[in-house]
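sry for the spam today, last one i promise. struct tokens for design, 113 residues
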């Protein structure tokens, strides 16, 4: 776990006040002990993303939760796809082949025009 002070030192341009605002908005959910917040590595990565969105890309406060939600959805879908891929890999070759055939047949044909 990384302390609030360490996060502020690590993320250039993120003040303690700004960090607390992002926490209050629910953009990141650190652990709180007393009055001090502690962050996991994933929280720090998310804070760095928020910093980039706001400071480097000038994404406004109203758009940040939308972007974060979309990114969370993408990560969730990637996890589900990896789980599905592992389940398919655990099947017998005949079952894998049948799944591949069905997937191939369900894809729309590309328009070559």
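last one done:
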């Amino acid at each position: 776990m990384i302390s609030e002070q360490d996060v502020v030192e690590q993320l250039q341009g993120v003040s303690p006040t700004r960090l607390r605002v992002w926490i209050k908005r629910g953009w990141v959910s650190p652990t709180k002990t007393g009055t001090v917040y502690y962050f996991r590595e994933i929280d720090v990565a998310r804070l760095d993303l928020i910093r980039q969105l706001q400071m480097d890309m000038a994404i406004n406060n109203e758009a940040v939760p939308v972007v974060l939600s979309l990114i969370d959805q993408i990560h969730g879908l990637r996890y589900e796809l990896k789980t599905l891929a592992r389940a398919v890999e655990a099947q017998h070759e005949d079952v894998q082949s049948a799944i591949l055939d069905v997937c191939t047949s369900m894809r729309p044909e590309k328009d070559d025009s």
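The CA atoms of residues 91 and 97 lie 10 Å apart. ok im logging off now
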